[in-house]
Design goal:
About 50% of the residues lie in helices and about 20% in strands. It has helices at about 5-20, 25-50, 80-100, 105-110, 115-120, 145-165; strands at about 55-65, 65-75, 125-135, 135-145. Strands 1-2-4-3 form a 4-stranded antiparallel β-sheet, with helices on one face.
Length: about 170
């Protein structure tokens, strides 16, 4: 009996420490490394799938009242090769999304992103329009369907987070 009480106390203390995030003195460092490794994977798979370098371009994701936008632009205005690759890729993305095909973002992010299931289900209620910009292009996403709009916003918020763009996750005008 005198051994049971100390063992029970040790288990309770361990559970308390884990609940308080004290299970590992290196926890924060482990989490930072895991996040850095994930972001590096997103960038590597993205460069492969998109056909242009994340280092030569900038992604932006906009949440708008009627949907949103995926924007990519060159960092160097004289980089016409990357600008053309951006335009080709986003033309392709607009058509794939219109068809309900989200394989490229699932490959890049190594998971089914939030919102995709509903966006596939409501594909007829969402428009994906390619638009050329001076430094690249955008896919403008428009819907009047409330459930589809919520899914588009979930998808774009995930993109902002996983690509670490620093874009706002609040809805604005365009």
């Amino acid at each position: 009996m005198k051994f049971i009480l100390p063992i029970a106390f040790a288990f309770a203390a361990s559970a308390f420490a884990q609940d308080k995030g004290m299970s590992c003195p290196m926890h924060d460092e482990h989490m930072k490394k895991q996040a850095a490794d994930r972001h590096a994977g997103v960038n590597e798979r993205g460069d492969h799938a998109m056909g242009f370098s994340h280092e030569k371009t900038a992604h932006h994701f906009r949440l708008l009242k009627d949907g949103g936008a995926i924007e990519v632009q060159v960092n160097d205005a004289s980089d016409s090769a990357s600008r053309n690759e951006i335009r080709g890729h986003l033309t392709h993305i607009a058509q794939m999304f219109t068809d309900g095909n989200f394989e490229i973002p699932m490959f890049i992010h190594d998971q089914v992103a939030p919102g995709i299931v509903v966006m596939k289900d409501r594909k007829a209620r969402i428009q994906y329009r390619f638009e050329s910009t001076e430094q690249g292009a955008r896919v403008r996403i428009v819907t009047k369907d409330k459930k589809a709009l919520q899914a588009v916003h979930e998808f774009l918020r995930f993109q902002i987070s996983d690509h670490q763009t620093g874009d706002t996750s609040t809805v604005s005008g365009f």
